[in-house]
Design brief:
Helix 2 packs across helix 4, helix 4 packs antiparallel against helix 5 and helix 6 crosses helix 8. It contains 8 helices and no strands. It is 77% helix and 0% strand. The longest helix has 26 residues. By secondary structure, it is mainly alpha-helical. Keywords: Sigma factor, Transcription, Transcription regulation.
Length: 194
Amino acid sequence: MAKKDAPPRWDRRMQQRLARGEAAALGELYDRFASLVQGLAHRVLGDERAADGVTREVFAHVWEHPDSYDPRQGPLRSWVAALTHRLAVQRLRATESAALALGGSGSTEELEDKVRHASVAARADYIVQSMPTPLRAALELAYFQRRDYRQTAADLGVTEDEARRRLRLGLQLLSTAHDAAAPGAPPGRYGGAA
């Protein structure tokens, strides 16, 4: 049980350290979450330089506004991911809107469709990265290596029922990526999909 308490305690301590202005805390946070932030931003924007810019914005925001994170609302990782998503979507909308204003092809509806698709893809990536290792391993075997549930069970050294359970649960988690990005979907803990 102590293991479950560790991440929220770390999250609260990290927020307190950031609020005190400890530069080492920002470095530690960056080391822990930079690849998540960069990956989500790149998934939404499809551009490495733009994703770098969003990454800088996210960590600048965390440094300047450490009290905007509320540990009671969920893990720091989720808050950072939601912040990344929000800033990346804002940048995508601004970039695409500017292109439309300059006479680019497309429409506002196509822009919103592009934002929705990027949101679903980024959320799915985040879900896969965040899911427990046994579920992720089962999905990787079944979908990337084309194993059926029997082969997955054998490769993982679990029963066929356990392999089916892991695959079912992993797919259920992934299905929430689409649900959260659908128009009118209720927002998540830190603001939802788009």
